[in-house]
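To fix ideas, we now present one chain and its tokenised fold:
***
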Amino acid sequence: MKMRKLFAGIAAAATLLGGMALSAASAQADGSGTVVTSKVNFTFTAQDAKQLTNRKLDAYKIADYVQYGTGSNATYGVQTADGVDRGTLKAALESATGKTVSETGDLMAWALAEGVLSVDNSADGAWNNSASRKFVESLKTTTDKLGTAEEVDLGAAANGTSATVTLPAGLYLFVDADYSVGTNGAATPSIAILVGSGNVKDGVLNPLTEATVAIKNQTTAVTKKVNGEDVITASVGQKVTYTITSKVPQNTQYYSDYGYTYTDTPSAGQTVDFDSLKVTVGDKSLNKGTDYTVAQNKNGTFTVTISSIQKQTAGALITVTYAAKVTEAGASGSKAVTNAVVLSDNGAEATDSTTITNSGFSFTKTDAQGNPLAGATFTIRVPGVDGSFTATSDKTGTVTFKGLADGTYEVNETTVPNGFQQSLKAKFNVIIENGEVKFRGTDVWGLAPKESSDKYQVKNVKNVTQLPLTGAAGTTLFTVVALLVAGAGVPSHSSRASACADTRSIAETISEKNEISGHSRKPSVDARFSCLFVPFHTF
């Protein structure tokens, strides 16, 4: 009964060892037994297949199972495996437990019998700083005293989220073969794990039962957003905010040095405001220089290193924010600005990126006959950008605005070429939606078409008689006259007479055009006296 109780107690403790399925063994080790050499399966499970990718472990056998007797009378015990240095093992046990270990007897049999390696029964017990974890971490630093390791290739044996390897029955310390350099890429190195084969049922040990354990590493993930989105549109000159998030790893405390860095790669189309960069963990702001550092690299990237990562609460959300300004350098094309970040988590890597799109529009400036005009200037107001955007027609008459976010823009002509009527200026709207441009003419003079076209032309005229004054245009004659008079500042009788002459000419022109187009509408007042009336009558 005493042996059965011991087995059960050891089994209970072993089940808690870092989430393992460790079996039991007897405290006897008098050398009269036979070491069990039969091989059994050790299965490592993961939540994500990436945890097993390229993962190799060094297996150090810490304890053997020993058979006493044969047949139905067979019993089993545990003893420290050959090759394990007694002094190293004793020091690790005492350091982890705070207890004095007997100078005689088998050390592993004593440890299991005393229950000193039992741990917290929570789901994340393996991550806690328990006696078992301290014991394992202590042994990990002295593997040269634990005999010869057998390398197991979990990556090669992996089938989805599990990998099964075969080893002689016993109790093993599994140490990540890439523990110090982290070459897995997608997942962090695994912390050391103590795993044993076998189980105890009804007080009877079966040392050949398969062992199953969850590998103790983590996939690395990072998220990056710009203004809270993956893709946005933004105009040249507009400020945007980038947000990078990840979580504090569970296993930082088990390494003497744990590297945790973000390397950000802004494109040529933006300027980063480094004074705006902030780092928080949970709701706590970190201090630059002590908790984290920022280094601007020669290749245009910059690196944020969380130097205090081992002091942060495991699982807490890390947030890095900074502002940037979209610049002229990235104003052309539909994907002008890209921004990628690479998180290096103790050798493992994860990446994410954002995209800022912008576009533009062009139209042609012509005279009344459709000939291109140079020197006409237009302006638009851009939301989120100080000042206005200005563009001037070139010798081909082309006017181009670029680097614009999706939205609606009012285009106003501000400068009319020399020799053309200065008081008559075009005004119209442009709508950009998903990079597609639509023109919507709005000016009352008819200088800008009402609807979009492939070749959108905006006119200038030398005199009011060149205006496209049809009935459909709804042109306000006396407003024209008022502008002419106001623009000329005519105080004299002769100037008034000239204005009246212009008015009569325009009225006659309108009447002729209306007759040609089938409109019978005529001026509401005699053109000879139209200049005497308040200029609000329409034709």
Observations:
- The first helix runs from residue 2 to 16.
- The chain has a mean pLDDT of 79.
- The chain is about 15% helix and 35% strand.
